[in-house]
Amino acid sequence: MGVLASNDIPGRSLCELCRNAGIRVPEAVAVLGVDNDESECRMSFPTLSSIDIPAEAVGRTAMESLAKLMKGGQPPPAATFLPPVGLIARSSTDWLAPRDPILGKALQIIEEESDRGIGVEAVCESLGVSRRNLERRFRSELGIGVHERIQTVQVARAKRLLLESNLRISEVAERTGFGNLRRFDRVFRQVEGCQPSEYRRLR
Where are its TM segments located (predicted)? Predict the structure, then answer.
């Protein structure tokens, strides 16, 4: 079952209510917000997935319409609808969310810290478990390794920045935790089959 909240604030509140009631999110109910307010989404537990609304484009379109009206133009014959930027997936709708609490916490740490360049050993240290133990849990339930999950999250965020910003490729690499451009190019090509610059041009 899933719930679409009107925006991120009630979405975060719903996650908290579910937690207090012993209802597991997203295993029992997935929660999705609207607006992609980074602070609200990251304060939520689990972190809140949200639909990213093109707020700047909405404001720009409204200003252009108002300017035409002020110059004596006619109002548009119908309402103007702008599509959402996309769905920003976080833990509240993550199909990978496991029943194992250690694994769930590991996924949350990776999601919150991957853009800071967190590595496998740091995840293990935060959880107080051995690398062998954590790798076994990941492989057993998710079929992937810890390092692979970190890279998947990093690449997903990099793709979003490549499409939605004018940041230089080196800045995208820095903001998504890759550390340097060479490593970013190598990992991105392994995951997506093309270089970051090619991905930006193709989209």
Answer: none
pLDDT of residue 95: 63
Instruction: Note whether 157 and 127 are within 8 A (CB).
Output: no
Number of domains in the chain: 2
Peptide bond into 196 cis (omega under 30): no
Rounded Cα–Cα distance for residues 127 and 129 (Å): 6
CATH number for the domain including 8?
3.40.50.2300
Q: Give which of 60, 58, 198, 183 is closest to 117, Cα–Cα.
A: 183
The pLDDT tens digits of the residues spanning 14-39 come to 999 998 898 888 878 999 999 988 88
Omega of the bond leading into 46 within 30 degrees of 0 (cis):
yes
For residue 32, report the phi and psi dihedrals to the nearest 5 degrees.
Answer: -130, 130
Residues 93 and 29: their CA atoms lie apart, in Å, by: 8
Judged by average pLDDT, the poorest of 48-57, 89-98, 172-181 is 89-98
104 and 73 share one domain: no
